[in-house]
Amino acid sequence: MKFTSNTLVRASLNHVACDLESDAVLLDFDSGTYFGLNPIANRVWQLAQQPVVVADILATLVGEYEVEADRCERDLLALLDELSAHNLILVTGSE
After folding, report:
1. Is 5 exposed, middle or buried (0-12, 13-18, 19+ CB in 10 A)?
2. What are phi and psi for residue 94, nearest 5 degrees?
3. Residue range 10-23: mean pLDDT, rounded
4. Which candidate, 18, 57, 47, 54, places its Cα nearest to that of 35?
5. 67/25 Cα distance (integer angstroms)
6. Which of 63, 77, 89 is closest to 6 using CA atoms?
7. Band of the pLDDT at 16, cuts 50, 70, 90?
8. Environment class of residue 21 by beta-carbon count within 10 Å: exposed (0-12), middle (13-18) or buried (19+)?
9. Quick one: how far is CA 59 from the chain centroid?
10. Which of helix, strand or coil describes residue 23?
11. Which of 6, 11, 16, 63 gives 20 to 30 Å between its CA and that of 84?
12. Can you name the CATH fold of 7-94?
């Protein structure tokens, strides 16, 4: 999946999540697989609980963490690719 700043994403509804301090663990019901999220990935997961455009996730992360926008964007797109590959997020359109 090719994500752009206008891609609208949302967390999949076919899972259960458990917060562990700032980390999280997800269980995908379809595959029975557990996924661990570090604090930043967990923040992305929290933001994706409602449909949100990638640009808004990026802006939130850059505002909350000390990171350069270019690096944050690369890391965010890689994370979204991984979450999408495991059907943990849904692409719901573009704005």
Report:
1. middle
2. -140, 150
3. 87
4. 18
5. 24
6. 77
7. confident
8. exposed
9. 13
10. strand
11. 63
12. Outer Surface Protein A; domain 3 (3.90.930)
Contact 95, 53 (CB under 8 A): yes
Give the predicted TM-score (pTM) of the model: 0.90
> Which tokens belong to 7?
């891609």
The per-residue DSSP string of 43-91 comes to: HHHHHTTS-EEHHHHHHHHHHHSS--HHHHHHHHHHHHHHHHHTT-EEE
* Cα separation, 76 vs 11, whole angstroms: 14
Per-residue burial over 64-90, b if 16 or more Cβ lie within 10 Å, else e, is: eeeeeeeebbebbbebbeebbebebbb
Q: Helix count (H) and strand count (E) of the chain? A: 3, 6
Contact 16, 31 (CB under 8 A): no
Q: Which amino acid is at 70?
A: D
pLDDT of residue 66 exceeding 80: yes
